[in-house]
Each structure stands twice: as C-alpha cells, then as structure tokens.
Specification:
581 residues, alpha+beta, 3 domains, 20 strands, seven-stranded mixed beta sheet, five-stranded mixed beta sheet, single chain
Length: 581
C-alpha cells in the first residue's frame, strides 16, 4: 500500500528531532532523527547543512521492504572537491570507467563516445568552433543615437531556382559552391534551400540529394498557411529570427524577409570509402553570418543555417522517405538549429545579452521535444512520437541513455568534441524535466527572451509561471523526479511520467510532450540511472557544480534505518524510498 508522503520539506523540518545539534572541534557525530518515510516515491529534503561534522540520518522503514536512496545535491556554482562518505553503502552498481576515478575531470567515453554514437545513430548538432564563436561573437557596434540602423545596408537578396552562389565556411579557401534548388514563401517569409553542387543528384558521395528530398524538407520547414510548419511552431514560442536593431555592423532588419538553408557535406563523410556514414555533425547555426563582413570574416551576410546533405539523403531501405531514420533526425535538426538562430536575435541582439551554451542547447533540444509529434519524428525522448507513454524497457534511443551513465554531472557545464554527447544527454534530461513541470512552451519562451545569461534565466522563468523555486530546489526536485520517473503518481515539481502526455498551449497552439521513465533506458550494461557505491562516491573526490549524485544506501530495508553521513559545506541531502521489487 502506498503511503501518501509526497510533500517537500524546506526550512526546518517540524518533525526533525535533533539529539545533539552542536558542532564540536573534535568532529563528534551529530545524531539526527528524521521522520519516517516509506513507499515508492516518498521523499524528504533533509534540513541538515554539510560541514566538518558528520551526522546520523535515521528513520523507521516499517514492515514493508524498502529500497532507500540518498541524493547529494551540490548547490555551489563550482565543483566541491571534498568527498562525501556514507557508512555501509550498498555495493551492487557498475564500476565507473578508470579515467573517471581521479577526480572531477571532463569525462571520457565509456565506451568511446564516437563509436557509441555511430552504433546507436546519435548525431551532433553544432561544431566546437561554431559553439565557441556563438557564445562569444564579435562586438556589436551601436548605431547613431541607438536608432534603428538601415542606411548603406543592401536589401534582401532575391533568387530564382537555379541561381548559384559560393558560400564561405571557415576561410577563404573553405567554400561551398551551391545552387538554389527550392524557394517557397508563406506570405511573410521566404525560404531559399541551397544544395552544394557536389551533393546534388548523381554525385559521387555515399548519398546525394534530389528534388523530391529537397521538396520534403521544404514542406517540413515552411509551407503556405499558418500553424502548420516548423517556422510557425518555433517562432510562436521564441519570437522572430530577425528584425529591427540599432547595430551598424549587423545585417539589415530587412534580412528578416528571407531565410537560407544550405545543405552540404559537413564532415566530408560522404567521401569515405570504408564506411557508411551513421552519425557525425548534423547541422549548425553560425552567428558570423548575421554580421557584415567588416566585422566577421567569412560572413555570408544573411539569415542562414547549415544542414548535412549526406545524412539528409541517407536511405533506410531501397527508396528514400522523409520518415527514414536519418532524414527524420535531420527534420528534428531543422527545429534545433532554427532555435539557435532565433536565440541569437532574441538574446544577443534585442536584449544585448547572451546565454551560456548549456542554456542555448537545452532550449534547442526542448524545441525538438515540443515539436516531435508535429514534425512526425521521435525526437530526443527516443520513444515513438505516436506514443505518449514512457515506452518500454531496454531503450537505447535518444539522449537519455547517455544521461543515465553521466547523471552525476550537472547541467551547467558544456563539453566539446565527442564529449558534447554527454552534455546533450544531461541538458536534455534537465530541460525535459523543466518543461514537464513548469509550463512547457511558455516556460522556454520566457527563458530565451530573458536578459539573464545564466541559470538565473531558468529560475526567473519558473517564477514567472507562478512557482516559488530556487535553482537549488529545482535541482533537488529534479533528483527525486529522476529516481521516481517510474511512478506515474508523483506530485507536480517531481514529475516525468503521467503514463500519458503533457500539454502546454501558447498563443492558441498546443504543444505535446510524452512521458519519460529513465529506468527504461540502457547504456551498455547499465540499466536506469547511475547509482554510485561507496568506492565510486569516494573516488569522485567531491561533486560537480550544481549536480546531483545518486546513491543506493539500502535494499529491502525494514525497521529502523541509520546511516552516518559526512558531506562538505554546500552539499544537501535528499532521501527517497521505493518499494523493493
């Protein structure tokens, strides 16, 4: 029988009895009696600060066997390099990679992340040099008196199908000759789709784009009518991708009349002779193209983002369909990169601010999530867009298997190279939690349109939706939601999984999100979230900044349960109990 104990405790727990509450120079144990909690999904945020004095956590487990978990939340904006210890930890979890046993370093693959990504069909959005550039673009120069600057800037470029252009990538020698293969307008915006000449029909690459493929991508991104394409759905959430501004070194406000998408072989994997492309870089938005060439070398001076032609053209069977695995991933990438384009204008240009990379990337992955069933793709959840339930066990698709293996790393860091796959997993897991508990589309509109650049953008957006939270409380509640994501009765704020969908409505458009059960996802031999044992907890040497570390401390416990805990200042403890299986 489930005991209805799902109310979070903040401040001083009224039922907490402190037997010896003073800190002693000798480090004597402070004994603490905590209230009884039991049953799947029961939790308590323990009001005990970390510090030099250990304490005893104790409660009565009752007669029904319980599994008991500790979640250690690092509330600090920096790594804590003092190890947390707990007496007599359960010891049945998978060992961590040797490379991770030497402190809080950037993780390496386990197994090799590039191999894992290609075996499981996981792609990267963006390139390290592009991510770094977008995070720190050139200085935007204010025009006279801050007035909207239009003079001496050319009008939008108008094309017809068959027109050609040579696009600049990263240097004067790194260029892409391309041809317009499709143009469409919905009466508000014009879309020009370019395809690199060496990626067009009957090319020498593994896979070549043809007109039917281009037309299919066109229809996904923009078509006549309203509320029926990626452009409409994404701008409804985040706002326009370009418009008026007062900077004299940016492209004109009139550039908002058209968007260009360039399909080309981003990683040159279409020319490989010994392997069939199955991953790599799917697309990117590079803010250099929003600057005039006088301020940004190799700018193409237009609203532009880039898509990989090879994976866009890859077939699952003999004939190509937009619903094939990689083409559908590329449809999701259209939404992902379009959010980045809008983000730059809404945050950097309109609000003279910026976003830390992890926030920008999280917004793009949640965009994929919010639009999955509209775009008819599975999205980062890795469950069919036709299925609002959390799916079935043994799932290795989407972003969440990687999150499970690295769940002890916080969302406020962003790794580069192949390790970016770790950051995608962690940030999607956090963003998926936020979207399902605090307002969905409206929440992320507020995050992107905030003038804050760091985690405070998330806190303020949550508060704007009518909730009272801090980033610490969000991390703590997220931790409970992770462990209890197999429970469909969790209260709001602790919820990943209702057994059905989550719906948010913004400006008359509804956005649907499916349920998530992290215990359904496998990474190698790991099934479900990573749970540390004593050796692993000690070997970490502390806690990553703004992170949760999950520890199983008891299995099938009954009666009185006591553990001695030593944790550094800034670390907070949450206890979760679940019925033993």
């Amino acid at each position: 029988m489930k005991i209805p104990f799902k109310t979070v405790f903040y401040g001083i727990l009224l039922s907490l009895i402190v037997l010896a509450g003073c800190e002693t120079e000798s480090g004597d144990t402070v004994s603490v009696i905590s209230p009884s909690i039991a049953g799947s999904g029961a939790y308590v945020h323990v009001d005990q600060e970390g510090g030099p004095v250990s304490f005893e956590y104790s409660h009565a487990s009752g007669s029904t066997p319980q599994d008991i978990f500790f979640i250690f939340t690092n509330t600090s904006t920096s790594n804590v390099t003092t190890a947390t210890t707990v007496s007599s930890l359960h010891s049945d979890s998978r060992s961590m990679p040797t490379a991770e046993m030497s402190g809080l370093q950037a993780p390496v693959g386990d197994p090799d992340l590039e191999t894992y990504a290609r075996e499981h069909g996981i792609g990267l959005r963006g390139k390290p040099e592009v991510t770094a550039y977008n995070a720190n673009p050139p200085q935007m120069n204010q025009g006279e008196s801050g007035a909207a600057y239009q003079l001496a800037i050319p009008e939008p470029l108008y094309y017809i199908v068959g027109d050609t252009n040579t696009f600049m990538n990263a240097s004067t020698t790194d260029t892409v000759p391309a041809t317009v293969r499709q143009i469409v307008t919905d009466g508000t915006i014009t879309l020009n789709i370019w395809v690199a000449d060496d990626a067009w029909s009957a090319c020498s690459k593994h896979y070549c784009l043809d007109q039917a493929m281009v037309d299919a991508f066109r229809d996904k991104f923009l078509q006549a009518g309203s509320d029926n394409d990626i452009y409409d759905w994404v701008t409804n959430i985040f706002g326009s991708p370009w418009g008026s501004h007062s900077y004299d070194n940016l492209i004109s406000a009139t550039a908002a009349q058209s968007i260009d998408i360039l399909f080309f072989d981003i990683s040159n994997d279409g020319n490989l002779t010994d392997s069939d492309p199955n991953g790599g870089i799917l697309g990117f938005f590079w803010s250099k193209d929003s600057f005039l060439t006088s301020s940004a070398n190799y700018s193409n001076e237009r609203l532009l983002f880039y898509m990989d032609s090879v994976l866009s053209a890859k077939k699952t069977d003999a004939s190509w369909e937009i619903s094939d695995y990689w083409p559908s991933e590329m449809v999701s990438t259209l939404a992902h990169e379009f959010q980045h384009m809008i983000h730059f204008y809404q945050k950097n240009v309109k609000r003279a601010s910026s976003s830390e990379t992890w926030i920008n990337e999280m917004a793009s992955m949640v965009t994929e999530d919010l639009l999955a069933d509209k775009m008819l793709v599975n999205g980062p959840r890795g469950v069919s867009y036709t299925d609002d339930t959390a799916g079935s066990s043994g799932n290795t698709k989407g972003r969440l298997p990687v999150y499970n293996n690295y769940d002890y790393i916080g969302p406020t860091v962003w790794y580069e190279g192949n390790s970016a796959l770790i950051s995608y997993g962690i940030n999607y897991a956090f963003g998926a939690y936020l979207a399902r508990n605090y307002g969905g589309a409206a929440l992320f509109q507020s995050i992107v349109q905030s003038s804050d650049s760091n985690y405070q953008a998330i806190v303020n957006a949550v508060v704007a939706q009518g909730y009272t939270e801090t980033f610490t409380s969000l991390l703590q509640k997220w931790g409970v939601a992770v462990l209890s994501s197999d429970d469909t009765s969790m209260a709001s704020g602790y919820l990943y999984n209702t057994g059905g969908g989550f719906t948010s409505t913004l400006n008359g458009i509804s956005y649907n999100l499916g349920s998530v059960n992290l215990h359904n996802y496998d990474y190698g031999s790991l099934s479900g979230p990573k749970l540390h044992n004593l050796e692993e907890l000690t070997a970490l040497g502390g806690h990553y900044k703004m992170s949760n570390t999950y520890v199983r401390v008891g299995t099938a416990e009954t009666g009185t349960f006591i553990k001695t805990v030593q944790m550094a200042a800034g670390i907070k403890l949450t206890v979760v109990t679940k019925d033993s299986q």
